[in-house]
UniProtKB/TrEMBL annotation:
SUPFAM superfamilies: GntR ligand-binding domain-like, Winged helix' DNA-binding domain. GO terms for molecular function: DNA binding; DNA-binding transcription factor activity. InterPro entries: GntR_C, TF_FadR/GntR_C, Tscrpt_reg_HTH_GntR, WH-like_DNA-bd_sf, WH_DNA-bd_sf. It comes from the Bacteria. Residues 15-83 form the HTH gntR-type domain. This is GntR family transcriptional regulator. It holds the Pfam family FCD. Coiled coil: none annotated. Keywords: DNA-binding, Transcription, Transcription regulation.
Amino acid sequence: MTVPYESQAVPRRPRNLAQGLVENFTGRIRAGDIAPGQKLPTESEIMRQFGVSRTVVREALSRLQACGLVETHHGVGTYALRPSGEDDFRVDPAGLATVQDVLVLLELRICLETEAAGLAAQRRTPEQLAAMRRTLDAFQARLRAEGDTVTPDFEFHLLIAQATGNRYFAGLMSHLGSAVIPRTRINAARMAGDDNEPYLVRVNLEHETIFEAIRRQDAEAARAAMRTHLSNSRERLRRLDGQR
């Protein structure tokens, strides 16, 4: 049975649209308003009802899936699962308002994502590797076109978390969403101390180094590349904070 939607009040648009959808569906699934096995509305229906883009809807559904609250059958639809009953880890992405807030989150990410990269190198499937390659190609294409690079940036990190085979890595990344990308909170050019493009080129090269280590299934190299990537972001932010 598909979840009825017209009877639901449309919530006020939150600062983070994807997180708003995640919270809406999570609350309804845990409260039993959406029963296990019920089919969620289509992407188009959610877009129309909430007034958001397809990218926002897909990010929200990806987070819900990573948290074990829904499952998607391609070509059929997305269905609610029975909640585990465990309390979710809470970090409010909307609260990352200052350089110091982002720095604290980066410290956590360095610890978690360094190990995630190593596990991903050991456990990734050919399909997961191909998906990572597509996100990096999308990053490069959008960089040249001066388009949105935040979405493929986040997707790359989420895919690595998913490739660990450990749902808690994926769940945390999915919960945080694109807020884990520092330039969603801090202007990218200010972070780099120069033009936006050279900064993003460096980020892209760091991603490629991580990818190559995962492709070779070199766990130690993957850990080192991820630590370098996130540490570089931390140092850029520290310099910015010092200038402030």
